[in-house]
Amino acid sequence: ETGTLRDRFEETVARDRRVEPRDWMPEEYRRTLIRQVAQHAHSEIIGMQPEGAWITRAPSLRRKSILLAKVQDEAGHGLYLYAAAETLGADRADLTAKLLAGQQKYSSIFNYPTPSYADVGTIGWLVDGAAICNQVPLCRSSYGPYARAMVRICKEESFHQRQGYELLLTLMAGTDAQRAMVQESVDRFWWPALMMFGPPDDRSPNSARSMAWGVKRHTNDELRQRFVDMTVPQAERLGVTLPDPELRWNAERGHHDFGAVDWAEFAEVVAGRGPCNAERLARRRAAHDEGAWVREAATAYAAGQAAAAAV
Ligand code: ACO
């Protein structure tokens, strides 16, 4: 019986159809999806912090409303993704508890500080740009609820990317000090943005299986290369220098060559020892504690509604 169910699952994946919550799926497939979707959800929620810090200091009402909308979108993305993880049988409270206990990961990129207002633009351009590059192919991920959540998330991410690029264009058209602020921010974010795509393919334990299952559509290195190729002309148009002396067009490959990513730094950040890991988790724990009354009130209200409906 399981044989037939497994055959049906394999056929769904092979024919590039979607696996849906009620379909039989191998436990390993379920586990890898819960892992990836939960990490992705946690990244969206923790990702509100680096930019959220600039909401009260945005230089105009227009900039403040754009940033506020953007950070709210990230919260929404987290919620769709937790809901997608729940269709796999995960429990959202349990996923949150694991994040707070440091037992589940979130993206390395959100452990870097945002000391400058230009960082708001750079995060939009490079970080959301990298996120789009990684996530557009996930709209074709084999698991239906994840793929569908990605469609909407990617639309919003492209707005985020454009608002960042537009902010940087504005700063670059300003004073020398503003241009220097953009360059300094790009210098800090370029390498961490390349790390977002994950370890190199030969050191990526999950890639082969996730690719075979259609959970991932491209390898980490393929997407990193695509991001570099996409970003170089944007940097030229902007007038900033990407901080990599080895970055150059390779006509033979039809791609840009680029320098070596510092994978030791990546490992440190993923292990919880990046510049802001402790601060991000402490903030998230405090927000969770401060929100306890909301969860209690919502639970009490739901119980009241259920009791009233039962009368
Ligand atoms: N930051 C933190 N951890 C990472 C990162 C990163 N940038 N890249 C890889 N890792 C972790 C993996 O989660 C995995 O850990 P685990 O086995 O304990 O779960 C380990 O490093 C090895 O990596 P891979 O085998 O390459 O893992 P995987 O196949 O899951 O690929 C990737 C990693 C590319 C991030 C994939 O999970 C993915 O595409 N996720 C969805 C996108 C996402 O989460 N984006 C979040 C940032 S973008 C944003 O929120 C705006």
UniProtKB/TrEMBL annotation:
Q: What Pfam families does the record tag this protein with?
A: PaaA_PaaC
Q: Which GO terms describe its biological process?
A: phenylacetate catabolic process
What's the protein here called? Answer: Phenylacetate-CoA oxygenase subunit PaaA
- What InterPro entries does its record include? Aromatic_CoA_ox/epox (IPR052703), Ferritin-like (IPR012347), Ferritin-like_SF (IPR009078), PaaA (IPR011881), PaaA_PaaC (IPR007814)
Tell me a Gene Ontology molecular-function term this record carries. phenylacetyl-CoA 1,2-epoxidase activity
What's one GO-annotated cellular component? cytosol
**NCBIfam families attached to this UniProt entry:** PA_CoA_Oxy1
